[in-house]
Design a protein that fits this description.
It is an enzyme of class 2 (transferase). The protein has 888 residues and is of the alpha/beta class. 48% of the residues lie in helices and 17% in strands. The relative contact order is 0.06. The structure holds adenosine-5'-diphosphate (ADP) and magnesium ion (MG) (2 copies).
Length: 888
């Protein structure tokens, strides 16, 4: 087994073995770009080290051999007193991870070799500057000394000399600083700063290995589902010096603008500095374009190299480079991060340049980015007053009056006010306030905090962990940098950037939504350019996808919008919404009915209303399938609240004027009250115990379809029975439904071609899918309820109570209500698909849970062979895009 690869031996596809940084350094080396020579220690070596607590013996020898080769090539030895070879030791896992170790530069310097470096470079100041940097970085990252101590000493030295930037410190000052730094190391780490160069290197390498297992790195991996045993690679790279005077420097660059995607010169440059200075913001950088006048030769070469890299990686790259006395060196490259908008633009630009094809373009964007582009956003041109910044926990742009407790949030929102609920952190008691608010802002907690999890579940804008804000709930105010925001003051929060503003920032609609709505077309300005890119990518996706995309919609308005967004039908029309509002009273009558006659009267009153709803719906979706689900929720949802009604009746009784209807209602409410309504009398169970209920609904659907047929329309209704657990339930309902349909067909002289199917949302239904398919013409997986019943938890309860703890402990990286749990719930879906198709090869299969609009879940549904996904109208473009990406 080979543990060490020279930069000339690797390539960009070896990220597993060499880490991202190492693989790309090798790739650049082999492209003939100027990379300082070096070698990479593999992730395999790290694994052995982590398992056995010691570096493999073979590793030491291999490192020695590679070091020797490097020394021969460079003509000097590591730490050699009169002319030292210096190296950097750089971490580099496959995925970059917070909590992993930083890089140590200038390894090889010591009390002896610092003089040699001074003589060789002819620059004493440079030599001592490099030495103090080594002790500082080594002390902090390898020996675990608090970095602040070094910073304070550096500040004090500048202060004593009355200068503000480190370049104004002379060799003598730096020499003194080195002495101080060494003392800090001794007292804090309990050991001297190692003078032996090889010891420095080995300690640094082991420290990189060890950093794989810091608590932060472990937690991050568990949440992101990164396997814990990948290990990190370590890069040893000969040093080049950007701090050798004004003809030296260091910088970062992008091959194109990561915000717009436009080609051009984007980056920052800092003269006379080493790499970490740019990031640390110690001195002000200049725009990369200025390098042209500072050092034209290096600038031209850099432009050339960037073009080479783009053409080679066929993507936007970011790079780190250093210029040493007029000689350009490449120190890192990788495919660069970009904004959501730029991702779409860059993908189409690369297609136009002939660098990638359409299938590849689809892989360069994703549904999360598209979703981000669809949120309304704050007007960037508006004048704003930034109060602070937190974590962008749940996207959107929300404006409202500041309130500091849930009670006020509910009270104000009831009277029509828009409010932003501001808390230090939220807990389950805040749930109602969160629902009432436009957005949620907290000063504590991260992406997995209660506020963040619940807000994402509700699709509500949320900024959390804005630590600059001091929230004082008792006095109903928050302060930030001397500004006081009182209850009732307007604030604006941006859940996509984490920014918090004072006052009302104007909101502009997303141009991408305007485009989907058909209100905007591709043109010339900036937003239009984005829209044109989205338009093209969506066209690619639609061309290749196999999954069809339907909408969950209950009325014509939503259906029409869904159609504009590209829906190919309705996958879930919930009929319970048709039972609310002023019709609630009719439902009450139905529930209270004592006799068949009373019941039939109540149903007969509902029938024409339902029918009218369906006519509208079928018309709006003419020519496309519409799956109508028969009544699903427990009946108590249509009745008054048990406590409220009890109080009312009790009061009335004490006044001796209780009314008859209230008394009957209370009786019914008591009778229907359930401990676990989610698991009680609902779905098909209702249809089986309330005579005529489902028949009335089926009749309304059939008559509406017949009406549309006779009006020369093309209705394609599908009747869906919810919460079936066994085929017998379905058989009974079907018999009745078939009879009703036949009656309607005969009476109207139509052939309606209605199909009848079921939801698969109980484990038993999934487990007996083969039997159920005998009676069902289609399955629609209700993955919300299926997730609840497979896991045995009720969503409303768990998301607000213990999900935060589960996410923090890494038990799941994302809520199973957000992304389908492939191993558990998903495996039931998979086997039900197989069993269902075995019984009935032409069984139509879809999904209508919220997972239908979740990117990762869509890929899963493609893979298990469903025919369509159905999601909320707003998620349809995301589902179309992901279905395309899954198939491409
Ligand atoms: P990070 O992952 O934090 O970017 P790097 O390993 O890239 O860590 O190094 C941090 C900084 O040090 C970068 O600016 C990099 O360019 C610079 N650097 C790393 N190795 C060398 C080297 N051999 N010579 C000069 N600068 C280096
Ligand atoms: Mg780093
Ligand atoms: Mg770097």
């Amino acid at each position: 087994q080979k543990f060490v690869y020279d930069f000339t031996e690797g390539n960009k596809d070896l990220k597993d073995l060499l880490g991202g940084k190492g693989a790309n350094l090798a790739e650049m080396t082999n492209l003939g770009l100027p990379v300082p020579p070096g070698f990479t220690i593999t992730t395999e070596a790290c694994k052995v080290y982590l398992e056995s607590g010691d570096a493999p013996t073979a590793l030491r020898d291999e490192v020695s051999a590679h070091l020797k080769a490097l020394e021969e090539r460079m003509g000097k030895q590591l730490g050699q007193a009169d002319d030292p070879l210096l190296v950097s030791v750089r971490s580099g896992a496959k995925f970059s991870m917070p909590g992993m170790m930083d890089t140590v530069l200038n390894i090889g310097l010591s009390d002896a070799s610092v003089a040699g470096l001074a003589t060789q470079s002819g620059d004493e100041r440079f030599a001592w500057d490099s030495y103090r940097r080594l002790i500082q970085m080594f002390g902090k990252t390898v020996l675990g000394v608090d970095g602040e101590l070094f910073e304070e000493a550096l500040e004090a030295a500048k202060h004593a000399k009355k200068v503000t930037v480190d370049t104004d410190l002379a060799a003598a000052d730096l020499k003194k600083l080195v002495k101080q730094f060494k003392k800090i190391v001794e007292s804090e780490a309990g050991r001297e700063f190692p003078q032996d160069a090889r010891e420095q290197m080995d300690l640094a390498i082991n420290a990189v290995f060890d950093s794989w297992n810091t608590d932060r790195a472990k937690l991050y991996r568990r949440q992101e589902r990164i396997p814990g045993d990948l290990g990190t690679a370590v890069n040893v790279c000969s040093m080049v010096f950007g701090n050798l005077g004004p003809d030296s420097g260091t910088g970062v660059a992008f091959t194109r603008d990561p915000a717009s995607g436009h080609q051009g010169v984007y980056g920052d440059y800092l003269q006379n500095a080493q790499g970490e200075d740019v990031v640390a913001g110690i001195r002000n950088t200049v725009p990369l374009a200025d390098l042209e006048s500072i050092d034209k030769k290096s600038y031209d070469q850099l432009m050339q190299i960037m073009e080479t890299l783009e053409n080679h990686y066929k993507d936007l790259c970011d790079i780190e480079f250093t210029i040493e006395r007029g000689q350009l060196w490449m120190l890192q490259t990788r495919v660069g991060k970009r904004t959501a908008g730029a991702a779409f633009r860059i993908a189409t630009q690369l297609v136009d340049q002939g660098l990638i094809d359409e299938a590849e373009a689809l892989q360069r964007v994703n549904g999360a980015q598209l979703a981000q582009l669809m949120f309304p956003r704050f007007d960037i041109e508006a004048k704003t007053e930034l109060l602070g910044r937190g974590i962008a926990a749940s996207p959107g742009a929300a404006v409202g009056k500041a309130v500091f407790d849930s009670y006020t949030a509910i009270k104000w929102s009831r009277s029509g006010e828009k409010v932003i609920l501001i808390r230090r952190e939220t807990n389950p008691d805040d749930l109602e306030g969160m629902i009432a608010a436009e957005g949620i802002l907290t000063s504590r907690g991260g992406k997995t905090s209660h506020a963040a999890v619940v807000a994402r579940g509700m699709g509500k804008t949320c900024v959390c962990g804005a630590e600059d804000l001091e929230v004082d709930t008792k006095r109903r105010r928050m302060t930030v940098g001397g500004i006081v925001i009182e209850e009732g003051d307007l604030v604006s929060i941006d859940g996509s950037t984490g920014k918090v503003y004072r006052g009302e920032v104007p909101v502009v609609p997303s141009p991408v939504v305007e485009y989907f709505e058909g209100r905007m077309h591709a043109g010339a300005d900036d937003a239009d350019e984005l829209v044109a890119a989205v338009h093209r990518i969506m066209a690619y996706a639609d061309r290749v996808r196999r999954l069809r995309v339907r909408a969950n919609a209950d009325n014509a308005e939503d259906a029409l919008r869904a159609r504009r967004f590209g829906a190919q039908g309705i996958g879930l029309c919930r009929t319970e919404h048709m039972f609310l509002g002023e019709r609630r009273e009719m439902v009450e009558k139905l529930i209270l009915a004592d006799t068949d006659e009373e019941r039939e009267t109540a149903l007969a009153a509902l029938l024409p209303l339902q029918k009218a709803d369906f006519i509208e719906l079928f018309e709006s979706m003419d020519g496309l399938p519409v799956t109508v689900r028969l009544l699903d929720p427990p009946l108590h949802e249509f009745l008054p609240d048990i406590t409220e009604l009890s109080v009312r009746v009790a009061l009335a009784e004490s006044r001796k004027d209780a009314n008859e209807n209230d008394l009957r209602l209370l009786q019914a409410v008591h009778k229907l009250h359930e401990q676990n309504p989610m698991l009680g009398l609902r779905g098909v169970r209702l249809g089986l115990v309330i005579p005529g209920l489902f028949a009335m609904q089926v009749r309304a659907i059939a008559e509406a379809a017949a009406h549309r047929k006779n009006a020369k329309g093309d209705p394609r209704a599908e009747i869906m029975i919810p919460l079936v657990g066994t085929v017998q339930e379905l058989e009974i309902v079907r018999e009745e439904a078939d009879r009703v349909i036949e009656e309607v067909q005969a009476a109207t002289g139509t052939d309606l071609k209605l199909t009848i199917g079921t939801m698969i949302e109980l484990p038993r239904a999934a487990l007996t899918a083969g039997q159920i398919a005998e009676a069902a013409q289609f399955f629609s997986f209700g993955t919300n309820d299926l997730t609840q019943t497979v896991w045995g938890f009720s969503r409303d309860d768990v998301e607000a109570s213990f999900f935060t703890a589960y996410l923090e402990k890494g038990i799941f990286g994302v809520s199973p209500f957000e992304t389908i749990d492939k191993d558990g719930v998903g495996s039931l879906v998979r086997s039900a698909v197989e069993a269902g198709r075995a019984t009935r090869p032409d069984l139509k299969l879809g999904v209508c849970g919220e997972h239908g609009g979740d990117p990762e879940s869509v890929h899963f549904f493609h893979e298990v062979g469903l025919d369509y996904v159905s999601c909320s109208p707003f998620r349809i473009p995301v589902a179309r895009l992901e279905a395309g990406r899954a198939a491409a």
